[in-house]
Amino acid sequence: MPPRTKRTRQQSLLATIACLATGVAVADEGEIAQVLASRHLMIPVPGVSRAALRDTFTERRGLAAHEALDIAAPRGTRVVAVDDGRVVKLFLSVPGGRTVYQFDPAGNFAYYYAHLDAYAEGVHEGMNVKRGDVLGYVGTTGNAPAEAPHLHFAIFRLGPEKHWWQGDAVNPYPVLNETDPVIGGRIGANRLSVSE
Q1: pTM of the complete model
Q2: What is d(CA 38, CA 1) in angstroms, rounded to the nearest whole number?
């Protein structure tokens, strides 16, 4: 058996991207994190610094693991797309309340935004979005405590079926970057006012 050669970081990243593009399973969580890091995902709540984020991914919520980040912000604060992609589902659920499911451009990952107070004007299923576009506004819909508005944000690695409701959870905390979107964004640029 020939000796295994050590892959460079770039070779490893390219191999992971190729596997994701073809639907081949990638077992190495570090490689998945590298792919997501290469996407330069932004913090989905403008004005929240990287230092203000707290890794809540492994915390328990009742009997289940949280598998998401909770990003506290005042009610009505804009929620923006972390990456380019497509809105695949707007969904109202008991735990998540008003939610948005967005796929990345290659359809390998789903970004999940939950507890929204409202959707941004014009947001609809099937629409393409750019990183920084406004999707909705921070709220407390679903099972979020009324006195604690926040965005519940999750990332899922999609299976070959590409079901918006099904995937393997990936911790967003290590891959979010502190980058401000273009001021205003293309969609629903204004903050939700109290009267709306």
Answers
A1: 0.78
A2: 34
